[in-house]
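User: I'm writing a tutorial on reading structure tokens. Could you give me a worked example: one chain, its sequence, then its tokens, then a sentence or two explaining what the tokens reveal?
Assistant: Sure. Here is the example chain.
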Amino acid sequence: MVSPAQTKVNRPLGFAACCLASMFWGCGFFFGKIALREMNVGAMVFYRFFFAVLGLLPLLVTHRPKLNSKEWGMLAAASALGVPLQFLFQFRGLSLTTVSHASLMVGTMPVMLAIGATIFSGERLHGWGWVAIFVSTIGAALIVFGHSNTVSANGPTLKGDLLVVFSLLIALFWVLLNKQLMGTHSSVMVTAYGTLLGTAMLAFVVPLIYGMPPVHGVSTKAWLALAASGLLCTAATTLLWNWGMTQVPASQAGVLLNMEPLIGSLLGVLVLHEALGVWAYVGGALIVAAAVALTTHSSRAVADVEAQAL
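And here are its predicted structure tokens:
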């Protein structure tokens, strides 16, 4: 049997899959904010993944795992990082800040991926890469510290912004562990069973920390937002992203994550009528520019190496 690593890659489709996944992820904070008006963070995250598992049920049946004990341990670790830890921290941050700010902070993720790929996957980061990291850090700082010191009840907060960034650090290791597993196993299987394991962990952790998720007294609008966040922003996006990651290097796919802060910020400003300060726009522009520069140079470097190998 041919492993995923041995099949012919399709980079254009891989980039398209990652781009579409990032756009759908950009809707996640928007739908989450709607649900958070009626339930706590733990309940919202649990129901998001409950709906995601429902959407993945056919794939759980058709793509049975063939993992050894070490790989099961790796999948469990990735699931713990990528589901309960990442999302509970991330949406706790969202509950304390705005959709626009939370979305813009996601713009730091491409740079984090580049650093992670350098440290854990042996990719080289040259001088321009470190410049991009510095610029991106300045951009994130402007977003976090640039808003008014007088924060309204529904406005951005330092704690909320930092919790979102912390969740992205957790997500970095989820991405790298999944990419390693998908070198020898189907991306569909890794996605489906990783989501199932993570949801089982949520079912254990959420009642202990937040109490039982509500069943009654939740509006139809909130249920629809939860279903959309689970089916569209979790199941579909993770399938698209994990498959895309089998076609393109992590550092190159990272630039497409900038669709997430773009879509999330637009939804926050245009639909939820959130306000962004001047420094937030400047900081967001710096983050996007740094990520584009970093991943563009990475793409050229990979292309040069491949050309020399021909």
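What the tokens reveal: The chain has one domain: 11-309. The two ends are 27 Å apart (CA to CA).
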